[in-house]
């Protein structure tokens, strides 16, 4: 029986499995919101859709499916929201971030080496696969460089995407357990301007900031351009006093849902045994690297005038988008977190290239 298909964001998807995936993700988000998890629409969608993908659950004759490119249309919303946190006071405070930036330059090679040892010694993956899977940042760059170096593409994709997903699952839940009460979106925290009245002028300014930010960032090659460009442009229009509005809270929540579904479907089509091994290795790697981030937070938070949670999030090996969403949810300094992740990505890719030129030749 032929499947009816629909085109979304340049991708074609079987209609019934797509609807089933959306409903499954929505159910996961709803359950997560009922039990009070942080980032419920992100965590719930990731767990529900990811589990269905790993179990090869059939939805109307097909596996889970979701237009992953759709996230590129929604991620700039997060960037625009982060830009709304720019204030003259924050810009002045940024001069005091240098201790944690120096700490980041020490943390990145340590985290890369620790994850590499886990994947190489315990996971028994070949050298290129272990090396590029253990990069604590720059997902797209890690996959591209790993493929050129001869890494196992399926394993590399699994371990790199698992790094993001594990951080999304572990960090907010760990903070909730540490604080002893519901935090972030579980407690109703939103963007500072998300509940402000938003007029036509505000909508036009924010749309222009998001679109122009993406275009300029892509043109000049900024890392994670679809979020960093809107951050900078939105920060500029807020500092200039053109608007004090932020994207509405429901858009932030829907973006969580889109990101969660797009990450969950990454597990579709993977062999269960290989996936189980990869997830176990990824969990061990991420947990070990997060312990380094916690140590950095305990050492550096007073020096930079931020909370321990903010420093841990700034060092955590997740993506800019995902960690920024968590920072928004936990009501910590999202600009501080996002800035450190941009630096982390640039530094990780630079160091990974330089080191591989040496050890790759030796191998």
Write the layout of secondary structure elements.
Layout: E1 5-8, E2 11-14, H1 15-35, H2 40-54, H3 71-83, H4 88-93, H5 98-122, H6 127-133, H7 139-149, H8 153-179, H9 200-220, H10 225-239, H11 249-264, H12 272-304, H13 308-315, H14 320-330, H15 334-362
Antiparallel strand pairs: 1-2
Helix pairs in contact: 1-2, 2-11, 3-9, 3-10, 3-11, 3-14, 5-6, 5-12, 5-15, 6-7, 6-8, 7-8, 8-12, 8-14, 9-10, 12-13, 13-15, 14-15
Plain-language structure description:
With 363 residues, the protein is mostly helical. The protein has one domain. Helices cover 71% and strands 2% of the residues. It has helices spanning 15-35, 40-54, 71-83, 88-93, 98-122, 127-133, 139-149, 153-179, 200-220, 225-239, 249-264, 272-304, 308-315, 320-330, 334-362, and strands spanning 5-8, 11-14. α1 (15-35) packs across α2 (40-54). The longest helix has 33 residues, at 272-304.
* Cα separation of the termini: 51 Å
Number of helices: 15
Share in helix: over 70%
Overall geometry? globular
The ordered string of helix (H) and strand (E) elements is EEHHHHHHHHHHHHHHH
Q: What is the count of β-strands?
A: 2
Give start-end ranges of low-pLDDT stretches: 186-194
Main sheet overview = 2 strands, antiparallel
> Strands across the major sheet, in which order?
1-2
Content-based structural category = mainly alpha
Q: What proportion strand? A: under 5%
Average residue-wise pLDDT: 86
> How many domains in all?
1
The Cα radius of gyration reads 20 Å
Oligomeric category = single chain
GO cellular component, one term: membrane
InterPro entries: AbrB_fam
Protein name: AbrB family transcriptional regulator
Keywords: Membrane, Transmembrane, Transmembrane helix
